[in-house]
Amino acid sequence: MTAVRTSAVTGKGSGSGRSARTRARARTAVVAASVAAMGVVGTVGSVAHAGAGPPGSLTANALTQNRVQAPAQTPEPPPEPPKPGDVPPRESLELALLDEADMGTMFLRSPQAPPPRGERESGCPALDAATAPGDEQDPPEVEFTATDVLVSQALYGAEPNEVQRAHAQFREALASCDAIGVRGTDGETVTMTVTPMDIGRPDAVAVSMTGMHLDSVVTGFLVFEALGSVELVYTYTQVGSADGQLAESVYLTALDKMQRVLGAAASPATPM
Known about the structure:
Low-confidence stretches: 1-54, 59-66
CATH architecture: 3-Layer(aba) Sandwich
CATH class: Alpha Beta
Order of helices and strands: EHEHHEHEEHEEEEEH
Helix content: 10-25%
Structural class: alpha+beta
Shape: globular
Number of strands: 10
Oligomer: single chain
Strand content: 15-25%
CATH topology: Protein Transport Mog1p, Chain A
Distance between the termini: 31 Å
């Protein structure tokens, strides 16, 4: 089974009677409010402010412009780049993940162990019931944090028809979800309301997410995209109003790297 996996959210829920000192502690706590699909764990960094309003837009027009500004560095390709229809080996998928050179100095890589399987329920039954391509439970994955921001990425390799089968499940599941529950180590749950988005890529399905933790709005984006023999799962989560331009820039950087490393094996099924 696959699900939206959750990680730690520290602290307790706020109320109108909470003291200023308690609110200050809450704002400076490390929030590990995580939103991650199919094993992609998210961690929002140190809470420096409380934002308001909906997440920034992740639009088709913006998805043609921005890139993360990082030092130029071309990763070493796998010895034999996969061909169309080939299932990329794990080594190739790991090389295709974002790394420090891709992300630039504002982000830090954040190692994160997967939680027990019993902690992977999302609160959306259809998403919990969906299965990853090849029923993979431990995909190559990576996460990065910056101030108030988490970026996470996972790559699943399988035969193209298996990727399409799983992707159809995720598309249908997300369409049925009104909210995703994010569970904290204190036992509390942050409910993230999800809203469907069109990011202008025919083989992608995406939602924006908005919730509250203590006095802070938590927002973000969740994207599944089927790319030939690879399913990409991308999560961007931020305390405050999500920076749509930054989210788009990182997403495009991830796609660019997959194309360089995996080549035709990670080509969109539907021509752009």
